[in-house]
Design goal:
- The chain folds into 2 domains: 121 residues, Zincin-like, CATH 3.30.2010; 77 residues, no CATH class.
- Helix content is 59%, strand content 5%.
- It is built from 9 helices and 3 strands, in the order ααβββααααααα.
- With 203 residues, the chain is mainly alpha-helical.
- Strand 2 and strand 3 form a beta hairpin.
- A 3-stranded mixed sheet has the order 1-3-2.
- It binds zinc ion (2 copies).
- The site of one zinc ion has 4 residues, from helix 4 and helix 5.
């Protein structure tokens, strides 16, 4: 390595590490705001275990992993959301999710953990791969792929609108960019062919 190259290398290293520190600081502030807005109470152990599995399979490094929180009834998202990710913090609507199947809880967690991966230093959620066009679609499809269980993917497919559906709810979900039932069933069929099942469905 020439002298100039070493200088450039050191300079770049300093720039990158100070950038990382800035985003870490921003994230800390934004995370505190998110906790104040959506709730700071830890979710039940089941959700921490589902998150641990999703963090591993989606690829969230240890230092970025957070404790899953309960979505507070005071949160503006409480009345309609099963879960949400804000500034990299994940909140679950426990009373709602307790009525759902394990497959739904598991797929919800993979979706939210994927949103965590999509969160930038300013707390904004963007597509990692722009060809997905909408972060919700990418979180649904990449979450289902990472979940690697055809029964879980089928459960998510059943909850998502058909591309042909014209109900108000379906049109709203499609406008918000969620994956269609048809897109998810393609993944489910591939997973079925390879016999992919999660530990809950292997039992
Ligand atoms: Zn989402
Ligand atoms: Zn499963």
């Amino acid at each position: 390595m020439s002298y100039t190259k070493i200088i450039v290398h050191i300079f770049l290293t300093i720039c990158i590490s100070s950038l990382a520190q800035t985003s870490l600081y921003l994230n800390h502030e934004l995370q505190n705001q998110a906790l104040a807005r959506h709730g700071s109470q830890d979710a039940d152990q089941e959700y921490q275990e589902l998150a641990e599995e999703a963090f591993n399979d989606v690829g969230i490094p240890g230092e970025e992993r957070t404790t899953i929180k309960q979505l507070s009834p005071l949160s503006i998202d409480y009345t309609y959301a099963a879960a949400c990710t804000c500034a990299g913090q994940i909140f679950v609507n426990q009373p709602y999710l307790q009525q759902c199947s394990t497959a739904s809880r598991r797929m919800t967690m993979f979706h939210e953990v994927f949103h965590k991966l999509q969160t930038d230093a300013n707390g904004k959620i963007n597509c990692i791969n722009p060809t997905y066009q909408h972060p919700e679609k990418e979180a649904d499809l990449k979450g289902a792929l990472a979940g690697n269980c055809y029964k879980c993917t089928r459960a998510l497919a059943a909850a998502r609108p058909s591309k042909k559906s014209t109900t108000t709810k379906a049109l709203r979900e499609l406008a918000n960019g969620y994956a269609t039932r048809e897109e998810l069933l393609v993944i489910a069929a591939q997973q079925k062919a390879s016999g992919a099942l999660c530990k809950y469905h292997k039992k």
